[in-house]
Amino acid sequence: MINGPEVVTCGEAMLLMLAEPGVPLDRATTFRRSVAGAESNVASGLARLGHWVRWIGRVGDDPPGEAVLRELRADGVDVSCAEMDPTAPTGLLLRDSHPRRAIDVQYYRTGSAASYLAAEQIETVALTGARVVHVSGITPMLSASAAEATWALVERARQAGAAVCFDPSIRRALASEHDWMRTVGPLLREADLVLAGEEELELLLGGGAEEAAKALLSLGRASTVVVRRRDHAAVALTAEGQWIQPPFSVPVTDPVGAGDAFVAGWLSAWLRGTDPGSALAEAACVAALVAQSPADTDGLPTAAGRDRALAALAGSDVGEIVHR
Fold first, then answer.
1. Staple 4 to which of 84, 90, 128, 174, CB 3.0 to 4.6 Å?
2. 78 annotated active-site
3. What is the pTM of this model?
4. Tens digit of pLDDT for each residue in 305-318?
């Protein structure tokens, strides 16, 4: 009998205002409303793939906060442990969208409700039944109280018997490299599952990414480290060996959100006991689908959509779906 969610994520969720495709932010006049946030993106991805996932976080008691929670609920995410703050606003993210030039991103998160996340909000009962708890490096970088909440989340996950999954998700606009190393570096050593970019491991641990990954396997708690390489390939390392997944060649519409989609795809496979090589292929497929769509979550597939897309990307003839 299942008595709780398979997955719990905890972190920031913001209202995203996305400029019309291809138009620079300073020239855009039309915007689409959506939701963005590292952990909430992963939650939506896992929910669409058929998993019971709970998101813990704070939004303002305001129209943007209502919109964020409504969109997460629509994706099937459990927001029963989210809180609405009557004294702080929901964070806002403005950005444009382009497949080939640098994307202009403007964050309005200082003093947001998410930055007031505190250890008291992380209750062990909210993690009951969870097999994995996921958090990114963005959360502890929001504020001192959010950092304390992140460490409380790790402790409560241990108490609940859940694995800890960690993605550094470094955003240099949020803090200096030194602050990232000081605040986020130690969390890498506490994670059972690490999914990180090649540059992130090099910054946080020094040396080459593969050497850093092997060090985490031998010196930290990690049983698996997945490295997203600069060339968009991905490698999974465990004590048993390593597996490599080349990137799928797809037309890119908007690359933002693909990293979170990769995490969702990989965790879904991990939860189902899939081998690391197949898990990487599923993760790369989900990321490729998101990169072909605007906004952070538009391209997130269902499990059937993932399987169909993966077969097509692998060169199988899946045929057309026709309803008569």
1. 128
2. no
3. 0.95
4. 999 999 999 886 55
